[in-house]
Amino acid sequence: MIEIIPAILPKNYEDMKNKIALVRGIVPIVQIDLCDGEFIDNMTWPFSTGGVEDYNFIKIMNEEEGMPFWEDLDFELDLMVMDAIDNFDIYTKLSPKRIVFHLESVGEIEELRNFIEGMDVYIRDAIQIGVAVNTTTKVELVFPLINYVDFVQCMGIENVGFQGQDFDERVLEQIKTLKKEFPDLIISVDGGVNFETAPKLVEAGATRLVAGSIILKAEDIRETIFELENLN
User: Fold this and answer.
1) Structure pTM?
2) Over 70: is that where the pLDDT of 134 sits?
3) pLDDT in tens, 142-182
4) What distance in Å separates the CA atoms of residue 12 and residue 49, rounded to the nearest whole number?
């Protein structure tokens, strides 16, 4: 069965809460896209509502409240930000089960590798680490990181950080290359996932599909997720 992860681009805290509520009780994990407006043009919560000054963000940092419905599901944080390494400790306070670094935002690959390798053992045991790669980036660049991460996230669109974008066929070759070199690697695809593209992604070797529009805009969210999970 393919793992389906709903993707949420939160405009603000209430928007995030409302969208998580749509899939609450249906999936065990959701992806929250954190966009700082620097790495990509889009900006999401908490950056869109004051960053470290956002009221709800402050309460979470002070452990006065948690992420919406944290008792019912886990969170995968997709860090489309320029400060992923520098402010990693802040992001961990959002209590994620998984964190995704974007290769193009972290600078030198060796820096990211050394950072992951040097993580506190408790943090590393508690949080799965992934690295994302754009369709415009040579997927071979992630090879030196494979032994240090839990999964690779291939972006299925060129214009990352926005939902409803056109599918980029180049991701299929990236997946095939990764699958050939690392047969046991968990490969996630984020962006451009729909009923037309999903079978191609699964056939190429993807094991996780991160989807936004097709799920959140569906008339029957539960059935949509079920159909995606059971693609052959």
Assistant:
1) 0.95
2) yes
3) 999 999 999 999 999 877 756 667 899 999 999 999 999 99
4) 6
74 HSE (CA, 13 A, CB side): 12
Phi first, then psi, for residue 222 (nearest 5°) are -60, -45
Given a cut of 80, whether residue 53 has pLDDT beyond it is yes
The pLDDT value recorded for residue 183 is: 97
Query: Which CATH number is 3-229's, of 3.40.50.300, 3.30.2310.20, 3.20.20.70, 3.30.420.40?
Result: 3.20.20.70
What are the sequence ranges of the domains in the chain? 3-229
